Amino acid sequence: MTPEAGVALMIGTTATFAASDSVVKLIGPAVPLVALLLGRYSFQAIALGVWQTRRGIEHFRDAGVLKLQLLRALLLLLNSACTFAGLRYLPLPVTTSLAMMAPLISTLLAAILLDENVPKSKWALVVMGFIGMLIVVRPGGGDFTWTVAFPIGAATTFACFQVVSSKLSTAGDPRTTNFITALVASIVLAALLWIDQADLLPEIRKVTAGSWLWVLVMACLATFGHLLMLQALRRTPLAVLTPFGYAQLAFATLFSWALFGNVPDRWTALGMSVIAMSGIGTVMLHARARSLRIAAPRERRRQTSANNSTR
After folding, report:
1. For residue 257, what is the DSSP state?
2. Helical H runs in 169-208?
3. Rounded CA Rg of the chain
């Protein structure tokens, strides 16, 4: 397989995730949020658990650092909760575009929490992304409400999720990691359901068979999207694939128009474009800086070898 195959799979991943979010938007408040999340993650846990078992029980041990696995699962669960909640109140393209600010937020976190030296070019892209966000939400306008906190929360938790995932990428098998993530999320959600069963169970009993069918469709799409992403990562480096993740904005806009008749106005479209360009630029700068860090020791070794050969 060529790297182009990984890019094609990544674009397929974004289409699948956009379709999954569209179904969540379609379900709306018909299913309680905890039950919606439990359906999504329990299906993934069962599907990946069966796959892991068929691969061999020894693969369950390729988990890496358990504390990081637990933290990754909780961060992704918070990300999904923020995304699903945001989709109940905001248009699909707006929720998707604001959630795509994760690379910008990761830059801020690196500067504030890790005390990393962030170049001016990255700060310029962070400011550019913030301007894009303001264009989308337009503070003071009729469409600006506190609900924009949900997709921004999704972007923040996903930025932290990416940091933890990068730590695990060299320590554990990715399929095992995704299985553990889904399993931990399912356990946490089942516990929340048990704790608040007095309020949640009556609401769950009201859910129609049709709504449960849509939950199943959403869970299938989300799980399939993760499997596509795994296949993409096996063929192409993450640094190459990440900019193509912004194709999800285009698919979200397409599905929003096809299913709900919502077309972003020119200001929202402009803000989405600004966020996408700043995010892609941030990713490319990260990739360039990483390649330079990797190349520098090699160049020093080459120079040392050349000097030794001339003696």
Report:
1. I
2. 174-195, 197-205
3. 21
pTM above 0.85, yes or no: no
d(CA 215, CA 236): 31
The vertex-6 CA angle with 102 and 23, nearest 5°, equals 55
pLDDT tens sequence across 33-72: 999 999 999 999 998 888 777 766 655 555 556 788 888 8
User: What are phi and psi for residue 62, nearest 5 degrees?
Assistant: -85, 60
Crossing angle of the two packed helices 92-99 and 149-168, in degrees rounded to 10: 40
- d(CA 273, CA 249) in angstroms, rounded, equals 9
Q: Which amino acid is at 66?
A: L
Residues 242-264 as b/e (b if ≥16 CB within 10 A, e otherwise) read bbbbbbbbbbbbbbbeeeeebeb
Q: In angstroms, rounded to a whole number, what is the distance separating the alpha carbons of residues 57 and 145? A: 49
Write the DSSP symbol of residue 205.
H
Tokens 């554990």 -> residue: 172
Residue 171 CA to residue 175 CA, distance in Å, equals 12
Distance CA 137, CA 267 (A): 9
pLDDT in tens, 211-230: 999 999 999 999 898 888 87
Among candidate residues 138, 48, 133, 142, the one with its CA nearest the CA of residue 98? 133
Q: How far is CA 122 from CA 125, 198, 244, in A?
A: 5, 49, 19
Distance CA 244, CA 280 (A): 8
Which tokens sit at 68? 């990081």
